[in-house]
Amino acid sequence: MSVVKVSFTFPEETLMLLRREVPARKRSAFVARRIEENLRRRKLSRAVKDTYGLLRGSGPEEWRTEKSTRDWLRKKREADTEEIKKLWK
Description:
The chain is mainly alpha-helical. It folds into 2 domains: 1-38; 47-89. Helix content is 64%, strand content 0%. It is built from 3 helices and no strands. It has helices spanning 12-21, 27-50, 66-88. It is elongated, with a radius of gyration of 18 Å.
């Protein structure tokens, strides 16, 4: 995969956190990885919205109602957040 240099504008506090938590030579990879994770999550969210209702009355119990689907997604997101917190430590 080719690599290109880009420029982003961050809040100063975010940049200070990044500098404090991630070694200088690993920051680009760290930021790229987090962006990729976020984009995958957004793609999954779009897919869920696009396929909403297809499994109505069938499929996993978690997907049977709008509320159970929202609860399931919230739990998955919370698990992702906990995983990210572990990676930051």
